[in-house]
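Entry 12.
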Amino acid sequence: MTSPSKIVEKKYLVPFILITSLFALWGFANDITNPMVAAFKTVMELTHTKATLIQFAFYGGYATMAIPAALFAQKYSYKKGILLGLGLYATGALLFYPAAQFQLFGFFVGSLYILTFGLAFLETTANPFILSLGSSDTSTRRLNLAQSFNPMGSFLGMIVAAKVVLANLEADKHGVDFSSLDAATKAADRLHDLAVIRDPYVALGLVVLVMLVIIAVVKMPDTAHQEHIHPLQSIKRLLKNKVYRKGVVAQIAYVAAQIMCWTFIIQYAENLGLSKEMGQYHNMVAMGMFIVSRFASTLILKYINASKLLMWFAIGGITTTAGAIFIVGLPGLYCLVATSIFMSLMFPTIYGIALGNVGTDTTMGSAGLVMAIVGGAIMPMLQAVIIDFETVGFLPAVNASFILPLLCFVVIANYGRQSYRLNLKP
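Predicted 3D structure (tokens):
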């Protein structure tokens, strides 16, 4: 009888720890940025729709750079792809300094776009790198374990957003609408508030540079496929792979649902009379639930088929978002918070299922799944358009807008069902 494969073998432990730390690093960037939609809306006097250009740039950068990142990693190595990603990440974060000096919303948007080029390199290389560090029998569990540290970074990002940014915005402290203030007061507040937004990103850029140096000097196993695979041939094979193709669609739906639920929880809370800061506290509770559920679901995956568990978690997401739509008041907000429990396993599990049988096309397949993060660029803008209506039928518009993540969970549940019926081994 053969002994069960370890999730992480001893020889891969140091690389696993270092690369897993990057999951927390990009989680921080994701979730300090989501609340910036509400912050920029007030400080720069924007509509909900225009403020979501923050999300469009942030998640659009993934779509722009995922395939170049895959080609780079395929030609060179996962390590070199990670180092380039860290360099771009640091550059985008440090550009917040001149953006605040010029007080241009477009400069901030461009800085985030460059920052996300780096994240695209990191996710395109780090996810398949983790999958490759050991037996394929434990690859999905190993990725779930690594991804469990992503929400820890996200939680820290939320704390910084709430305590360092949202709590210190002068634009929210006058007791009246910011746009009604005189020009001199608005100018002073804007100068102060853009510096408040700037500083965490500049500090983040410096931390990223430190990580770049550490990873540069540590030897990493070269587990990338070294065969000379023509990218067009790889793409053709992936497009013919039904499980992979549908996995990309499911990943688009998941990322869209996650970003919508975590971005607009603040607006949902504000509609109930709560402050931005209190809305962000509810977001932090949601993230705490997400973290606990991510570790729990990693354990459960040892006993339950990944596709089947994905389906049931998606059904749970459908239920809680329905509550957020139709229950007006704090119970609806609590339903929205609880949705994070069911989102917890989705990204790495869809990722592992979709790449389960792509063979030497793993690197290009990873790029397609990272490009799926573009769902976080498009769908929040559509949700913001709904919210700008203020009411939809008998419901507040912010409640009605959560029909979009509900539909996303329907897509994910169907993918779980289909991949389970195909008896795919995750």
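Annotation: The mean pLDDT is 87. Residues 173 and 258 are 30 Å apart (CA to CA).
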